[in-house]
Amino acid sequence: MRGVFLIPAVIAGGVTLSACAQNGEQTVERAFQDVNVVDESNLNDVMLTVADPNEAVNYFNRALKAEPDRIDFQRGLAKSLVRAQRLSEAVPAWTKVNGMAGATSEDKVNYADALIRNSEWDKAETVLDSVPPTYETFQRYRLEAMVADANKEWKKSDSFYEIAAGLTTRPASVYNNWGYSKLSRGDYTEAERLFDQAIRQDQSLFTAKNNLILARGAQRKYTLPVVPMDQIERAQLLHTLALSAIKQGDVQTGKQLLREAISTHPQHFEDAVRSLNALENA
Hints:
This protein is mainly α.
């Protein structure tokens, strides 16, 4: 009688083992799927940061061929095209992102950014106007300020720059852009203040240093400000100051500054030499 009951017991055991094996395989498969999702997400991030932008474009194009409805791949492609400076391709790529299910306000702002880079100011303004007012980010207000500048809506511009500066821990570029806006309006004193503020936030921002010299030169301040600079930067800033002096009609001061720039530069300063020769031969 024991034999009679033994066979069903063995069969039942086999069924149980088979079910355990199937469950185990499914668990392992799900685990590998989870790992693949994590790896894919990490790879997407890598492609958007350290990878060569054109390699990233190729990667996301290949990914979209396999899964054309994935908005994260389309978004990655659009961002990579901007990084690669392929703006004529980036704009339609962002257009497509914003037409897909799951598009966000951030996607609209990035679309507006691509349009501005491609000099499509009117369309960028329309896109920004479609972003809900509750969506308040540094990037949104930075772009709003740039559009207001382009429209010469100075009160709006100042307001947007101020908001943008308060929404980031690195406002140097905002102060630099704001200062350039003031410079273009002829408000040189305020421009000088904003450029100085930009440099205080980021001492490596040479563009702000050069703009500061332009603001000072426009006021006939022909001495270098007390800001951090290496020897090459000092020579370059002296050259900018010299050109500002010449533009103001102070030619002799300009010549003196050019000579100082040439003697300061650790290598041969071709641009300054050419400018001085042109003045000497005029």
